[in-house]
Specification:
Largest sheet: 8 strands, parallel
Number of helices: 14
Distance between the termini: 24 Å
CATH topology of the largest domain: TIM Barrel
CATH class of the largest domain: Alpha Beta
Low-confidence stretches: none
Strand order of the largest sheet: 1-9-8-6-5-4-3-2
Shape: globular
Order of helices and strands: EHEHEHHHEHEHEEHEHEHHEEHHH
Radius of gyration: 19 Å
Helix content: 40-55%
CATH superfamily of the largest domain: Aldolase class I
Mean pLDDT: 96
Number of strands: 11
Oligomer: single chain
CATH architecture of the largest domain: Alpha-Beta Barrel
Strand content: 5-15%
Structural class: alpha/beta
Length: 357
């Protein structure tokens, strides 16, 4: 099926925007050059930092790519709960010989400044996470030729994105690594999200716009499955995190297939928002007590995570990973795109043969 979304890439393979450094310009360009769609993550960057990375990608490839933005967050955190959690982390600060971060370091992630740059100097696709932008924002981007998509985790969120005028939705299943892109953080629904295939089917019946499928996808056969379920393209994060071009720390890359880390879990321990990562000491000890407070907790733990990485201690890092992390392959990004495309073709062929039998 051809759509404005699928026209951006030769293969229906999208490299997920991974905030924190993994989605660096070299990775983005390598994926796009190979026929997939590379994605920069603007989250946690300054507006100028985002712009400089866009320029770097353009210097490396003439192929289309995307940029992902974090939506500004409402003030709903309980300051007392944040303070209690800060006290609980005092021992971590002592251990890693660093200071805890300031919880009031900013809520909007430079949203307006980043939007202004993207309207003035457009890129092919802009996606949004942690909420749905206004119709005016989406129209401003569309007027300059940019396609837009909104990350959704429920049918209601998908319908809200369509009503706002988004060109597509990025449907994120519970299997996905990193943060769940819920529009409203509700502790009562923690861990209660839908698996990707079930969610795609429900969203497909509820909206008429193209679907990007995200969540635990590591093989071409899984791409075939989400396309058969109704998605237009598949988005992979963990699969690309371990590539040589990825900007993720070496410790994080090695942890994906390290027998020491056997499973993933959704946790608020590192950021105050549900995010899926490998279960390590920090997650086990602090996850049960972390409040619903994003980005306050993200700011508080940021120095701890950096200090743990500097000390070579994966037990104190946020090791974001999808449920399929043990299937990670340390291939160059371009080669990984080609392997996934070949696996996709083989899976489609097998499905065709079974259908003809």
């Amino acid at each position: 099926m051809s759509s404005a979304l699928t026209d951006l890439c030769h293969y229906p393979i999208v490299q997920a925007p991974m905030a924190g450094g993994a989605s660096c310009p070299v990775l983005v360009a390598a994926v796009s050059e190979a026929g997939g769609l590379g994605f920069l993550a603007a989250g946690y960057k300054t507006a100028d930092g985002m712009y400089q990375e866009i320029k770097q990608v353009r210097g490396l490839t003439g192929r289309p790519f995307g940029v992902n933005l974090f939506m500004p967050q409402p003030e709903y955190a309980d300051p007392a709960a944040v303070d209690v959690y800060r006290h609980q982390l005092a021992g971590e600060a002592t251990w890693y010989q660093t200071q805890l971060g300031d919880p009031d370091s900013g809520r909007d992630d430079g949203y307006d400044a980043k939007l202004a740059i993207l309207v003035d100097d457009p890129v092919p696709l802009v996606t949004f996470t942690f909420g749905c932008p206004t119709r005016e924002v989406l129209q401003a981007l569309q007027r300059v030729g940019t396609l837009t998509a909104v990350t959704v985790t429920t049918v209601d969120e998908a319908q809200a994105a369509q009503r706002a005028g988004a060109d597509a939705v990025c449907v994120q299943g519970i299997e996905a690594g990193g943060h769940q892109g819920t529009h409203r953080d509700n502790p009562e629904t923690d861990g209660g999200g839908l698996g990707l295939l079930a969610l795609i089917s429900q969203v497909k019946e509820a909206v008429q716009i193209p679907i990007i499928a995200a969540g635990g996808i590591m093989r071409g056969a899984q791409i075939a499955a989400v396309l058969a379920a109704g998605a237009d393209v598949a988005q992979l994060g963990t699969a690309f995190l371990v590539t040589p071009e990825s900007g993720a720390p070496a410790l994080h890359k090695r942890a994906m297939t390290d027998p020491l880390f056997t499973r993933t879990e959704l946790t608020r321990a590192f950021s105050g928002r549900p995010a899926r990562g490998l279960v390590n000491r920090f997650l086990r000890e602090h996850g049960p007590y972390a409040p619903a407070a994003y980005p306050e907790i993200h700011h508080v733990t940021s120095p701890l995570r950096k200090a743990a990485a500097k000390a070579g201690d994966p037990q104190g890092m946020a090791l974001w990973a999808g449920q399929g992390h043990r299937l990670a392959r340390e291939l160059p990004a371009g080669q990984l795109v080609e392997v996934l495309a070949a696996e996709l073709d083989a899976a489609k062929g097998a499905l065709g043969q079974r259908g003809a039998a």
